[in-house]
């Protein structure tokens, strides 16, 4: 209720200002007894003004009444609201106790927080010092970074020049690569051509070599054959030569020989190219039988003291040569000789007979030598 009273007093005090404004048009009461026409006109004006003011006031009072009504309604609403609020407050009073205990808790927590805050302050100062140190370090780092940046710029410059250089090298390399590629292709061509040529050459070489080999082999064979033949011939010749017939036999003793008898020369002095069988045949028959055809030297010398003794050389029982032997003028023995060449065929026989009777000394010999 006191709240409503206050509100009404407040509204009136605001409205009173309107009256005070009207008071400023103060009426001059001085000299009423001397009311002139001017004063009357002024009075009429004042009355009119007063009427206007009154009307105005009336309107204002009406308005104020309306406002008062609306205010009363508003206050009633406020009152209701306040009442319900009060009820809420009463309800809330119960919860205040909880709030109190909560407050105690809160205070404890606050103390803890304050401690933590103090610790944080300490930590903060430590951090601040750390921060300063870090700042210094950062300055250093910044300086180093600047230096590094300069270095990097220099390096970049160098790098770009290197890149340019590399690009130039790249072009060179590409040119070289192309050249190498071309060369490789040419090499491949040359290699293929070479291989082809080499194959042809090898085939040709092989053919030639084979031909040459067979030709050489043939020639060697021919040569060997010829050589063999020649060697055989030479061997034959040599053996023939070595085995040429050479025979010298002399008589064993001095004796009388009858006409037409055989002279047997039994002492074999030289023997070559005649085997023992042939030798024995000669010794028993007194006839030389030719086994190797050829040119022969046939020679005999006879020592005798018979004057005009005649001896003959027979070939195949036919006389081919004869000689006449004489004693020496002083009556002593003398040697007579027959020497000649003759071609003998195989189985030809040669021997000597006295044509007349005669005495023959032992210093008499018969020789046969194959020349060819
Ligand atoms: C609030 O509660 C206290 C005691 O708990 C009491 O003394 C006080 O009068 C109460 N206030 C209201 C407005 O009910
Ligand atoms: C303050 O710093 C110390 C040591 O670094 C740490 O153990 C402590 O928890 C910090 N205090 C707070 C409130 O962070
Ligand atoms: C960083 O460089 C500036 C100028 O070059 C110099 O004045 C400053 O002392 C340097 N700071 C450190 C931490 O070296
Ligand atoms: C390789 O040889 C062939 C035929 O002989 C020719 O057509 C070609 O141009 C050659 N290539 C080179 C790279 O010389
Ligand atoms: C040439 O001869 C050799 C050996 O005889 C052989 O290996 C090769 O294949 C031959 N080459 C040709 C092209 O005939
Ligand atoms: C010895 O020579 C004769 C010819 O003079 C010949 O017929 C005979 O076969 C030869 N005997 C031997 C063993 O060589
Ligand atoms: C009105 O009259 C009173 C009393 O005589 C005086 O005190 C006041 O100053 C006057 N007001 C005006 C505006 O003249």
TrEMBL record:
Protein keywords: Coiled coil, Signal
Recorded coiled-coil stretches: 47-158
Classification via SUPFAM superfamilies: TNF-like (SSF49842), Tropomyosin (SSF57997)
All copies of domain C1q, residue ranges: 260-355
Signal peptide: 1-18
Domain of life from the UniProt record: Eukaryota
InterPro entries in the record: C1q_dom, Tumour_necrosis_fac-like_dom
Name this protein carries in UniProt: C1q domain-containing protein
Record organism: Mytilus edulis (Blue mussel)
């Amino acid at each position: 209720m006191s709240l409503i009273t206050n509100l009404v007093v407040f509204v009136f005090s605001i409205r009173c200002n309107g009256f005070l404004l009207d008071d400023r048009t103060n009426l001059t009461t001085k000299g009423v007894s001397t009311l002139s026409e001017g004063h009357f006109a002024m009075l009429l004006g004042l009355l009119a003004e007063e009427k206007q003011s009154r009307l105005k006031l009336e309107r204002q009072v009406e308005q104020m009444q309306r406002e008062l009504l609306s205010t009363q309604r508003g206050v009633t609403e406020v009152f209701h609201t306040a009442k319900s609020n009060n009820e809420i407050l009463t309800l809330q009073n119960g919860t205040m106790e909880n709030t109190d205990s909560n407050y105690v808790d809160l205070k404890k927590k606050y103390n803890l927080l304050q401690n933590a805050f103090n610790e944080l302050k300490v930590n903060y100062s430590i951090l601040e010092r750390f921060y300063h140190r870090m700042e210094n370090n950062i300055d250093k780092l910044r300086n180093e970074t600047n230096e590094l940046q300069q270095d990097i710029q220099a390096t970049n410059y160098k790098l770009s020049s290197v890149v340019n250089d590399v690009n130039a090298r790249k072009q060179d390399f590409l040119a070289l690569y192309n050249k190498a590629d071309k060369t490789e292709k040419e090499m491949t061509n040359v290699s293929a051509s070479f291989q082809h040529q080499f194959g042809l050459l090898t085939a040709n070489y092989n053919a030639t070599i084979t031909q040459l080999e067979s030709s050489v082999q043939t020639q060697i064979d021919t040569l060997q054959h010829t050589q063999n033949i020649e060697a055989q011939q030479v061997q034959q010749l040599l053996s023939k030569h070595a085995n040429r017939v050479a025979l010298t036999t002399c008589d064993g003793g001095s004796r009388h020989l009858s006409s037409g008898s055989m002279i047997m020369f039994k002492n074999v002095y030289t023997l070559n190219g005649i085997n023992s069988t042939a030798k024995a045949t000669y010794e028993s028959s007194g006839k030389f039988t030719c086994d190797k055809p050829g040119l022969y030297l046939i020679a005999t010398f006879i020592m005798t003291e018979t004057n005009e003794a005649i001896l003959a050389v027979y070939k195949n029982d036919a006389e081919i040569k004869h000689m006449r032997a004489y004693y020496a003028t002083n009556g002593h023995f003398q040697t007579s000789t027959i020497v000649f060449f003759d071609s003998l065929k195989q189985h030809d026989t040669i021997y000597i007979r006295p044509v007349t009777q005669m005495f023959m000394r032992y210093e008499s010999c018969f020789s046969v030598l194959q020349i060819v």
